[in-house]
Write a structure and sequence with these properties.
Strand 6 and strand 7 form a beta hairpin. The chain contains 6 helices and 10 strands; from the N terminus they run ββααβββαββαβαββα. Pfam families: AA_kinase, ACT_9.
Protein backbone atom coordinates (compact mmCIF):
# COMPACT_ATOMS: atom_id res chain seq x y z
CA UNK A 1 0.00 0.00 0.00
CA UNK A 2 1.28 3.48 -0.86
CA UNK A 3 0.11 6.69 0.78
CA UNK A 4 0.98 9.91 -1.06
CA UNK A 5 1.28 13.09 1.01
CA UNK A 6 2.95 16.50 0.70
CA UNK A 7 6.03 15.61 2.79
CA UNK A 8 8.91 13.15 2.31
CA UNK A 9 7.36 10.39 4.40
CA UNK A 10 6.84 10.36 8.16
CA UNK A 11 9.00 13.08 9.71
CA UNK A 12 10.76 13.29 13.06
CA UNK A 13 8.41 16.13 14.05
CA UNK A 14 5.92 18.60 12.60
CA UNK A 15 7.84 20.64 9.98
CA UNK A 16 5.57 23.63 10.61
CA UNK A 17 7.12 23.91 14.06
CA UNK A 18 10.48 22.20 13.47
CA UNK A 19 12.11 23.38 10.21
CA UNK A 20 14.88 20.76 10.57
CA UNK A 21 12.51 17.79 10.84
CA UNK A 22 13.89 14.80 8.91
CA UNK A 23 12.25 11.76 7.29
CA UNK A 24 12.20 8.57 9.34
CA UNK A 25 13.14 5.65 7.04
CA UNK A 26 11.00 3.03 8.77
CA UNK A 27 8.57 2.68 11.66
CA UNK A 28 6.59 -0.20 13.11
CA UNK A 29 2.80 -0.42 12.95
CA UNK A 30 2.68 0.35 16.66
CA UNK A 31 4.91 3.41 16.34
CA UNK A 32 2.87 4.74 13.40
CA UNK A 33 -0.39 4.26 15.31
CA UNK A 34 0.95 6.05 18.38
CA UNK A 35 2.34 8.90 16.28
CA UNK A 36 -1.03 9.36 14.59
CA UNK A 37 -2.94 9.25 17.87
CA UNK A 38 -0.64 11.76 19.58
CA UNK A 39 -0.74 14.41 16.88
CA UNK A 40 1.16 13.41 13.72
CA UNK A 41 -0.92 14.27 10.64
CA UNK A 42 0.41 11.72 8.16
CA UNK A 43 -2.01 8.85 8.86
CA UNK A 44 -5.25 8.47 10.80
CA UNK A 45 -5.11 5.83 13.59
CA UNK A 46 -8.11 3.98 12.11
CA UNK A 47 -6.27 3.63 8.80
CA UNK A 48 -3.69 1.43 10.53
CA UNK A 49 -6.20 -1.22 11.62
CA UNK A 50 -6.61 -3.19 8.35
CA UNK A 51 -2.92 -3.12 7.41
CA UNK A 52 -1.96 -4.34 10.87
CA UNK A 53 -4.58 -7.09 10.71
CA UNK A 54 -3.30 -8.44 7.39
CA UNK A 55 0.39 -7.55 7.90
CA UNK A 56 0.54 -5.27 4.84
CA UNK A 57 3.57 -2.93 4.50
CA UNK A 58 2.73 0.74 3.89
CA UNK A 59 5.03 3.22 2.18
CA UNK A 60 4.44 6.94 2.72
CA UNK A 61 5.68 9.03 -0.24
CA UNK A 62 5.71 12.68 -1.30
CA UNK A 63 3.56 13.44 -4.36
CA UNK A 64 5.61 16.62 -4.93
CA UNK A 65 8.93 14.76 -4.66
CA UNK A 66 8.31 11.20 -5.92
CA UNK A 67 12.03 10.38 -6.07
CA UNK A 68 12.28 10.62 -2.27
CA UNK A 69 12.44 7.20 -0.60
CA UNK A 70 9.75 8.04 1.95
CA UNK A 71 8.93 5.94 5.01
CA UNK A 72 7.95 2.28 5.16
CA UNK A 73 5.60 1.08 7.91
CA UNK A 74 6.11 -2.60 8.68
CA UNK A 75 5.54 -5.27 11.28
CA UNK A 76 8.68 -5.28 13.43
CA UNK A 77 9.23 -7.62 16.36
CA UNK A 78 12.49 -6.11 17.59
CA UNK A 79 13.12 -2.44 18.52
CA UNK A 80 14.99 -0.23 16.08
CA UNK A 81 18.41 1.07 17.05
CA UNK A 82 16.97 4.59 17.42
CA UNK A 83 16.64 6.06 20.88
CA UNK A 84 13.80 8.37 19.74
CA UNK A 85 11.86 7.91 16.50
CA UNK A 86 9.72 11.06 16.53
CA UNK A 87 8.37 13.92 18.63
CA UNK A 88 4.65 14.66 18.38
CA UNK A 89 2.32 16.99 20.23
CA UNK A 90 -1.26 18.11 20.84
CA UNK A 91 -2.11 21.68 21.78
CA UNK A 92 -4.99 23.11 23.83
CA UNK A 93 -5.65 20.10 26.01
CA UNK A 94 -7.09 20.07 29.52
CA UNK A 95 -5.41 18.53 32.56
CA UNK A 96 -7.68 17.20 35.29
CA UNK A 97 -6.31 16.38 38.76
CA UNK A 98 -8.66 14.28 40.92
CA UNK A 99 -7.74 13.50 44.53
CA UNK A 100 -9.61 11.84 47.38
CA UNK A 101 -7.77 10.98 50.61
CA UNK A 102 -11.00 9.34 51.81
CA UNK A 103 -10.25 6.50 49.39
CA UNK A 104 -6.94 5.58 51.06
CA UNK A 105 -7.05 1.84 51.74
CA UNK A 106 -10.51 1.55 50.15
CA UNK A 107 -11.50 0.14 46.79
CA UNK A 108 -13.69 1.48 44.02
CA UNK A 109 -12.15 4.95 43.56
CA UNK A 110 -11.08 4.38 39.96
CA UNK A 111 -14.34 2.66 39.05
CA UNK A 112 -16.36 5.60 40.42
CA UNK A 113 -14.29 8.12 38.49
CA UNK A 114 -14.43 6.30 35.17
CA UNK A 115 -18.14 5.57 35.55
CA UNK A 116 -18.59 9.35 35.57
CA UNK A 117 -16.47 9.71 32.42
CA UNK A 118 -18.55 7.05 30.69
CA UNK A 119 -21.81 8.70 31.71
CA UNK A 120 -20.64 12.08 30.38
CA UNK A 121 -19.13 10.57 27.21
CA UNK A 122 -15.67 12.00 27.89
CA UNK A 123 -12.63 10.14 26.55
CA UNK A 124 -9.18 10.29 28.15
CA UNK A 125 -5.87 10.69 26.30
CA UNK A 126 -3.27 9.78 28.94
CA UNK A 127 -3.35 9.32 32.70
CA UNK A 128 -1.20 8.77 35.76
CA UNK A 129 -2.64 7.42 39.00
CA UNK A 130 -1.95 6.50 42.60
CA UNK A 131 -4.20 4.93 45.23
CA UNK A 132 -5.91 8.24 46.04
CA UNK A 133 -5.35 10.46 43.01
CA UNK A 134 -5.61 10.52 39.23
CA UNK A 135 -4.22 13.01 36.73
CA UNK A 136 -5.49 12.76 33.17
CA UNK A 137 -5.79 14.74 29.97
CA UNK A 138 -8.71 15.46 27.66
CA UNK A 139 -8.45 17.04 24.23
CA UNK A 140 -10.17 20.22 23.08
CA UNK A 141 -12.94 18.32 21.26
CA UNK A 142 -14.73 17.50 24.52
CA UNK A 143 -17.96 19.44 25.08
CA UNK A 144 -17.83 22.09 27.83
CA UNK A 145 -21.27 21.21 29.19
CA UNK A 146 -20.21 17.58 29.66
CA UNK A 147 -17.05 18.69 31.43
CA UNK A 148 -18.92 21.04 33.76
CA UNK A 149 -21.39 18.32 34.69
CA UNK A 150 -18.52 15.89 35.35
CA UNK A 151 -16.80 18.33 37.71
CA UNK A 152 -20.05 18.83 39.61
CA UNK A 153 -20.62 15.08 40.01
CA UNK A 154 -17.06 14.40 41.17
CA UNK A 155 -17.21 17.14 43.81
CA UNK A 156 -18.89 15.17 46.64
CA UNK A 157 -16.10 12.58 46.93
CA UNK A 158 -12.98 14.17 45.41
CA UNK A 159 -11.04 17.41 45.17
CA UNK A 160 -10.87 18.32 41.49
CA UNK A 161 -8.59 20.85 39.78
CA UNK A 162 -8.93 21.67 36.08
CA UNK A 163 -6.01 23.25 34.22
CA UNK A 164 -6.53 24.59 30.71
CA UNK A 165 -4.16 25.88 28.01
CA UNK A 166 -1.94 22.83 28.31
CA UNK A 167 -0.11 20.77 25.68
CA UNK A 168 0.74 17.09 25.40
CA UNK A 169 4.27 16.38 24.12
CA UNK A 170 4.95 12.74 23.22
CA UNK A 171 8.21 11.00 22.40
CA UNK A 172 7.88 7.91 20.23
CA UNK A 173 10.85 6.12 21.70
CA UNK A 174 12.46 2.86 22.71
CA UNK A 175 10.86 2.53 26.14
CA UNK A 176 13.34 -0.24 26.91
CA UNK A 177 15.84 2.63 27.20
CA UNK A 178 13.55 4.91 29.21
CA UNK A 179 16.26 5.92 31.69
CA UNK A 180 18.51 7.10 28.88
CA UNK A 181 15.69 9.05 27.22
CA UNK A 182 14.50 10.69 30.43
CA UNK A 183 18.02 11.55 31.58
CA UNK A 184 18.38 13.80 28.53
CA UNK A 185 14.79 15.08 28.56
CA UNK A 186 14.80 16.29 32.15
CA UNK A 187 18.24 17.86 31.88
CA UNK A 188 16.92 19.85 28.90
CA UNK A 189 13.74 20.80 30.74
CA UNK A 190 15.72 21.85 33.82
CA UNK A 191 18.13 23.97 31.76
CA UNK A 192 15.26 25.62 29.84
CA UNK A 193 13.06 25.99 32.96
CA UNK A 194 10.27 23.97 31.34
CA UNK A 195 7.73 22.80 33.92
CA UNK A 196 6.29 19.29 33.57
CA UNK A 197 2.74 19.11 34.91
CA UNK A 198 2.31 15.37 34.36
CA UNK A 199 4.18 12.44 32.83
CA UNK A 200 2.88 9.12 31.52
CA UNK A 201 4.56 6.11 29.93
CA UNK A 202 2.20 4.28 27.60
CA UNK A 203 1.32 0.62 27.98
CA UNK A 204 2.26 0.23 24.30
CA UNK A 205 5.93 0.58 25.32
CA UNK A 206 6.71 3.00 22.49
CA UNK A 207 5.64 6.36 23.91
CA UNK A 208 6.49 8.68 26.80
CA UNK A 209 4.21 11.71 27.24
CA UNK A 210 4.62 15.00 29.11
CA UNK A 211 2.00 17.63 29.89
CA UNK A 212 3.33 21.20 29.65
CA UNK A 213 1.92 24.70 29.48
CA UNK A 214 1.04 25.70 25.91
CA UNK A 215 3.43 28.63 26.21
CA UNK A 216 6.41 26.28 26.71
CA UNK A 217 5.57 23.68 24.06
CA UNK A 218 7.49 25.20 21.15
CA UNK A 219 10.70 25.62 23.14
CA UNK A 220 10.40 22.08 24.49
CA UNK A 221 9.86 20.48 21.07
CA UNK A 222 12.66 22.44 19.39
CA UNK A 223 15.12 21.75 22.21
CA UNK A 224 14.41 18.02 22.30
CA UNK A 225 14.55 17.74 18.51
CA UNK A 226 17.95 19.44 18.53
CA UNK A 227 19.16 16.86 21.07
CA UNK A 228 17.80 13.67 19.56
CA UNK A 229 18.03 14.46 15.83
CA UNK A 230 20.42 17.36 15.17
CA UNK A 231 23.40 16.78 17.51
CA UNK A 232 22.97 20.32 18.82
CA UNK A 233 21.76 19.68 22.35
CA UNK A 234 21.68 22.43 24.98
CA UNK A 235 23.03 19.81 27.42
CA UNK A 236 25.40 16.89 27.02
CA UNK A 237 23.07 14.02 25.98
CA UNK A 238 23.15 11.05 28.30
CA UNK A 239 24.47 7.78 26.84
CA UNK A 240 24.46 4.54 28.79
CA UNK A 241 27.91 3.02 29.15
CA UNK A 242 28.84 0.32 26.72
CA UNK A 243 29.46 -3.20 27.92
CA UNK A 244 32.62 -5.08 27.02
CA UNK A 245 30.96 -6.70 24.00
CA UNK A 246 30.12 -3.24 22.62
CA UNK A 247 26.39 -3.41 23.30
CA UNK A 248 24.50 -0.80 25.31
Amino acid sequence: VQVWKDVDGILSSDPRLVPNAIPVPDVSYEEASEMAYFGAKVLHPIAMVPVMKYNIPVRVKNSYNPSAVGTVIVNRDTPSNRLVTAITYKRNIKLLDIQSTNMLGAYGFLSKVFAEFEMHKLSVDVLASSEVSISLTLDKKQRDENMNSLLKNLGPYADVALKEDMSLLTLIADVGRTSEVLATVFRVFCTQDIKVQMMSQGASKVNISFVLHDSQLEEAVLSLHSCFFENQCVVEPYHSEQKEDGSL
